[in-house]
Design a protein that fits this description.
- Helix 3 packs antiparallel against helix 4, helix 4 packs across helix 7 and helix 4 packs across helix 8.
- The protein is built from eight helices and no strands.
- It is globular and about 35 Å long.
- Helix content is about 50%, strand content about 0%.
- The chain has about 190 residues and is mainly alpha-helical.
- It folds into two domains: about 30 residues; about 140 residues, Lysozyme (Orthogonal Bundle), CATH 1.10.530.
- This is Secreted protein.
Amino acid sequence: MNTMLRKSVLGVAGLAFIGGVFAGPIAAHAAEPVHANPAVVQADKPDSGKLIPHGVQGAQSRIGLNDEQTGNVKAIIAATKKAGMPERAAVVSIATSLQESKLENLGHLGDANDHDSLGLFQQRPSSGWGSPEQITDPEYSTTAFLKGLKQVDGWQDMPLTKAAQTVQVSAYPDAYAQWEQQAADLVAQYWNS
């Protein structure tokens, strides 16, 4: 048994050495210094690893935003900061709003309405999210969504679509994933503005 363990360890060490020999020149080339002006680097720009820690799930969608939608992005980010939550929470929130309303603060849509769903997150007064006036207030609706997100154990370490679905309980649980890249791009663009 001891001999088998030693052979296994030596075999793994040999593979690691061979891998290092072949990867050495590539790694050495990759380690060459990049000549950049350090004054241009923004130290406080959100880290992309924090914004999309699992990578995007599936094909991504993207829409152009008008001034109202951009204002709603900024409102979501401001509410996230006010709640003391990290950039990832803003990514989850924005992706959720992109799916639910395309970042439009929707009022009652008559027959086209999904039950009594309103606002950026299509929250329902009848489900306890708040009054119609509250739900159509971007700060209130974002804070309500974030309150729900905080109650999801481990939301920071789960794929975006699972975190969003746990809060929203949508009939289309995987649909949130398609907005992750655009949401991360928007957080990177507006987090410090």
